[in-house]
Amino acid sequence: MPLSVEPWVLREPTLDVDDLPRTAALLTVANGHLGVRGVLEEQRPPVPDATLLSSVYEHHPHEYPEHAYGYPAHDERLEAVVDACGVDLRVDGEPFDVRTGTLEHHERRLDLRTAVLEREAVWTSPGGSTVEVRTRRWASLVRRELVVASYEVRAPGRARVRLRPVPGCGGPSSDVPAPGLRTDACAHAPGTTWVAQRTVAAGIGVVLATTHGVTASPGAQHRWVEDRHGWALDVELPADGWVRVATHGAYACGRRPVEALLADARTVLAGAHDEATLEAEHRAFLDDVWERADVLVEGDDELQQAVRLAVLHTVQSAARVEGSGLRAKGLTGTGYHGHTFWDAESFVLPVLDHVLPGAAAAHLRWRHATLPAAVERARTLGLPGAAFPWRTISGAECSGYWPAGTAAVHVTADVMDAVSRYVAVTGDDALEREVGVELLVQGARFWLGRGHRTPDGAFHLHGVTGPDEYTAVVDDNTYTNLLVARSLTAAVEATGRWPDEARRLGVDDDERARWAQAAGAVTVPYADDLGVTEQCTGFTQRPVWDFARGPQGWAPFEDHVHYTELYRHQLVKQADLVLALAVVGERFTREQKRRDFAYYEPLTVRDSSLSASAQAVVAAELGHLTLAHAYVRECAFIDLHDLRRETQEGVHVAAMAGTWDALVRGYGGVRLEGGGLRVEPRLPPRLARLRFRVQIDGWRVEVDARRDEVTYRLLTGARVALRHVGDGAQEDVVLTADDPVASRALRPVAEPTPPAQPPGREPRG
Q1: How far is CA 548 from CA 2, 454, 545, in A?
Q2: pLDDT score for 554
Q3: Which of 1, 81, 354, 568 has its CA 20 to 30 A from that of 296?
Q4: Using an 8 Å Cβ cutoff, are 716 and 698 in contact?
Q5: DSSP string covering 9-39
Q6: pTM of the predicted structure, to 2 decimals
Q7: CA atoms of 47 and 650, how far apart (whole Å)
Q8: For residue 64, with 0-12 CB atoms within 10 Å meaning exposed, 13-18 middle and 19 or more buried, which class applies?
Q9: Is 469 annotated as catalytic?
Q10: Contact 636/607 with Cβ under 8 angstroms?
Q11: CA angle, 267 as apex, 287 and 321 as ends, to 5°?
Q12: What whole-number distance in Å separates Cα of residue 670 and Cα of residue 665?
C-alpha cells in the first residue's frame, strides 16, 4: 500500500490487509525496551508479534547436521508478549473485522514529531450497524516500561458495543512445552488487568499490569460485565454517542518471582496516572531529539520524509536500551531473532553519539556487562581477552554458522572503536574510566592472541571474515586490520589516561608497548600491479564473477549459489574495502580512494542493507554526487519501499541510521580530526539545501548548505573552531557566543564519470 509523502507524517490513507505485516513494522511505536508494532487493535486479521520486550527471549536448541567443538548449543529468540493495546470490539454482537461488512474509511498516521500512532476507521457491520473507531498509542520515551493507548467508539446511530481490553490473555497455559512462552497467572477486574508470563527454557518472567479508564458521552450507558473470558465493558450508545477506554500498560520483566514483577509494574502505573503529564514529558524528550537530529532536505520531498522516519526509528530503537543493547531490527519485528550484531557499533552508534549520546552510552555499558560471556567465548577459542559475539541477545554467541559468525572477529574491533569514538565525540570521561578502559584492554589482549608477527615484523590476522560475507575465512582483511590497529592505539592511549584502572586490570608498560608495536605493524595488503588496496590478501588474484550466471534480478546470491562458489570469487556482498575507506579514511589518500572505489564498485552486489550508506559517503567524498544521491535514497527507502521484500520482519535500523550518516558525513563532509570538526559540504544537482546539526563535547553547530553558500551557526557552547574545506582549500572558522555565525561560498562540484555497478545492481530508491 503506498504511503503518502508528507514532511512530518507517515500516513497510510487506506488499508490493505495483505500489507499489514509490512506496515506493522513501519508503524511501530517503541523506546528500545518496549515495542508495539503497528497491528490493528482487534487483531483481525491477526499479525504476529504485536508487542516485544528487548529482554524477553527464549532458548532454542541449535540442531547441527555435524556438531563440532565450540558451536553454540542454543539460539536466543525474542518472544512476543501479551499486548496491552489490544481491544476486542463487538458491535451488536458482531466482531469488528475490517474484512467483513463494509470498511468505508480507514487511515493511520504516525506523527514523526511525537511518535504517536493514530487510527480512524468507519465500518458498517454485516448487520448494518455503523461505528467510527479512533485509536491512539505511544510508547513512553521517558518511562521505559510504559505504553499509553486509547480506544474510542462512536455511533452515528444507536449501537450496542462490547469492548474487552487485553483480549490476548487466554488464561494460564502451564502445559506449554519448551521452548516457548507460557502464561503462569492472570487476573481481570473492572478497569484493571494483570498477566504473568515466562519463557519456559530461559526462565525470563514478564508481568503486564494495566488500568482502563472509561469516559463516555451523556446518555451512553456503560457497565463492566464478567464472563468466561474475564471482564468486558458493555455500552449502549445513543445516536452520536461515544465511549473511550484509556489504557496505561506497564511491563516488568526479569528472573524474579511473579509477585516482585507485579509490584514493579504496579509501581510504574501508580506514578503514571496523569496522561497529560506523561505525554508532555514524552514530547519534551522528542523535541530535544529533533533539535539535535533533524535534517532539512530541500529538493527531494520523498527523502525529506524518509530521513525523518529514519531518525525516529533510530531513536525508538535506542532511547531506553539500558541493560539490553541495540537490536538490528529494534523492536519492529523478530527478524534476525531479535539479535544484536556489529551493526549497532558500526552504523547506529555513530549517529547516536551526536543525537542521543545517553543511548550510545547505555549500549556500551551493556556491552561491558556482557564481558564475562565475551571472555568465556575467547577461552573457548583458546585465546586471551574478550571475543564479542557475532549475534546475541544476552551476550552469549548465538551464531551457528561460524565462517560468517565466529570468524568475523572484526566485531571486537567495532566495539573497541565505538568506545573511543563515543568518548571523542562526547567527552564522557566517566564512561571511559568506568567501562571503556576494560573493554579496550580485553579487546587488545584478544588481538595480541589472535594475531601473530612474521619474521619481517609485520602483524597479521589470518583466518578471518570481514564485512563481506561472500569472502570468508581469509588472511588480513583490510577493514579488520585497520580497525584493529586503531583500536590497539586507543587501548594504549586510554590506559595512559587512566593508569589506576590499567593497574587494576594488570596492564603494565611492556604490555602497552606490545599493543603499540602491533598497531604500527598491521598488514594492509596491496596489489602493486593494479594500484589498489586489496580487500584481503590475494583478493585481486581470484576469478571475477561471471554475472551471466545469475541470479537474475535482486535475488540474493546466497539464495542461489553455494558458498564454496561465492567464497572463491571476486564477488562482494556488501561494502568491505569501501567501508574501510569510509570508516578509516585517514589511512588513504584521496587518489587511492578513487582507485579503490572504482575497482570495488563493479564487484559489489549489495546483498546486504549495510552497504549503501558507506558507498554513499565515499561516493560523495569523491565527487560522485549523483551516484551518492542514489545510494542515499536506497538507504532511506529500503523499508518505506520494501526494496528487499523483508520489511515484514522488521525495519533495518542500521540503514535507518545510515540515512542520517550518509547525508551528514556524505554531503555534509563531516569528519572528526584531532578532536576537532572538519566540514566539506557539497550538494548533488537535485538538492537545493541541506541543513543539519552536530554536537561534539558539549557544543552544537548547525551546518546550513545551499547551492552557493554554507552558513555555520554556533548553537550551544562558548567557542568552537572548525575547519571548512571548499574549492580545494582549507580554512579555520572560529565561532563564538559573541560572533556565532559565519558563511562561506560554495561552488558546484564537477562530477567525474562514476564507476559502474554490477549488471542490474544499480542503486534503487
Answers
A1: 34, 41, 9
A2: 81
A3: 1
A4: yes
A5: EEEE-S--GGGHHHHHHHT-EE-SSEEE-S-
A6: 0.97
A7: 13
A8: exposed
A9: yes
A10: no
A11: 45
A12: 5
The C-alpha atoms of residue 152 and residue 154 are separated, in whole angstroms, by 7
**Residue count of the chain:** 765
Q: Convert the pLDDT of each residue in 88-128 to its tens digit.
A: 999 999 999 999 999 999 999 999 999 999 999 999 999 99
What average pLDDT score do residues 129-152 get?
A: 98
Cell of 144: 521505559
C-alpha 730/C-alpha 709 separation (Å) is 15
DSSP string of 489-506, one letter each residue: HHHHHHHHH-HHHHHHTT
State which amino acid sits at residue 279.
Answer: E
CA gap 318, 152 in Å, rounded? 31
Question: pLDDT tens digits for 647-666?
Answer: 999 999 999 999 999 999 99
Helix, strand or coil, per DSSP, at residue 369:
helix
Bond preceding residue 238 cis, omega within 30 of 0: no
Q: What DSSP line would sit under 325-361, residue for residue?
A: ---TTTTS--GGGG-B-THIIIIIHHHHHHH-HHHHH
**Parallel, antiparallel or unpaired: strands 689-696 and 729-736:** unpaired
Q: Which residue type sits at 316?
A: Q
Catalytic residue among 42, 432, 469, 649: 469
Tens digit of each residue's pLDDT (9 = 90 or more) over 492-502: 999 999 999 99
How buried is residue 510: exposed, middle or buried, by Cβ count under 10 Å (0-12/13-18/19+)? exposed
Cell matching residue 448? 595480541
